[in-house]
Amino acid sequence: MRPIRKIIIHCTDSEWGNVQAIDAWHKQRGWDGIGYHFLIGNVYPEYQNIKNLHPVPEHDGLILEGRPIEKMGAHCRGHNYDSIGVALVGVKTFSKAQLYSLINLLKLLMKQFQIDVDQIYGHYEFDPLKSCPNIDVEWFKKMLNF
Description:
Elements: E1 6-11, H1 19-28, E2 38-40, E3 63-65, E4 83-88, H2 96-113, E5 120-122, H3 137-144
Parallel strand pairs: 1-4, 1-5, 2-4
Antiparallel strand pairs: 2-3
């Protein structure tokens, strides 16, 4: 097992998505599959066409497994070796269900891998050109201490 020392939070920068779609997008970029270890779904898991997205409420906040944790991620240059990548499906707006699932997933991963709250980061903290995950990561860190 590779060492896990941190968790990096992302957003997909897409209004919709599922593991299969993001796996295909990442392969188009030359990666060997989805770069994130977990996705947190929104109500639009599948693309119908740009004008006709069909909400699927049961996908809102659904935690989906992407790349196996044992496999190094492809989500944050220079930090993939010892991190877990978690991505919220969306751009700048996320549902309460997604945020609640993120908190629960982070708590679970922190316990499983003995990660301190100070080892949770937003992608933007490693790439100044990014705003991803477009949420207040410091607020999430405070919520994890409850």
